Amino acid sequence: MSAQIKYAYLKGHTWLYRRHYPKGVALALGQQALKQSLKTRDAATARVRAAELNARYETQVAEVLVTSESFPRLVRL
After folding, report:
1. Residue stretches of the chain with pLDDT short of 70
2. Does this model's pTM top 0.70?
3. Is residue 65 part of a domain?
4. What pLDDT is stored for residue 70 in this prediction?
5. How far, in Å, are 28, 57, 58 from residue 63 at the CA level?
6. How many domains does the chain have?
7. Which residues, other chains included, contact 52 with Cβ-Cβ below 8 Å and sequence gap of 6+?
8. Is residue 3 part of a domain?
9. Spatial separation of the C-alpha atoms in residues 21 and 54, rounded to whole Å
10. Environment class of residue 28 by beta-carbon count within 10 Å: exposed (0-12), middle (13-18) or buried (19+)?
């Protein structure tokens, strides 16, 4: 049975991470998703690295939302 890691998937022999941004945040960042290789084939290591990227994602989204308070139209699209 394959390991289940939220926002990560196994492609070939390497775990990859992909999490889509909300539309307004994606417009502000110029990217639709946070995408990154976890550079491992081990599920336990991938789980730890995915958790780190989830924290980074949450921080990025929060920063964009705080910054966008001065530009409310940007995030509400």
Report:
1. 1-2, 70-77
2. yes
3. yes
4. 66
5. 11, 10, 9
6. 1
7. none
8. no
9. 12
10. buried
pLDDT given at position 68: 77
**Full DSSP string of the chain:** -----TTEEEETTEEEEEEEPPHHHHHHHT-SEEEEE---S-HHHHHHHHHHHHHHHHHHHHHHHHHGGGSHHHH--
Separation CA 74–CA 26 (nearest Å): 10
Residue 37 sits at φ, ψ, to 5 deg, of: -75, 140
Amino acid letter at 24?
G
In a domain, 1, yes or no: no
Let me know if residue 2 belongs to a domain. Answer: no
Structural domain range at position 21 = 8-75
Distance between CA atoms of residues 35 and 72, nearest Å: 26
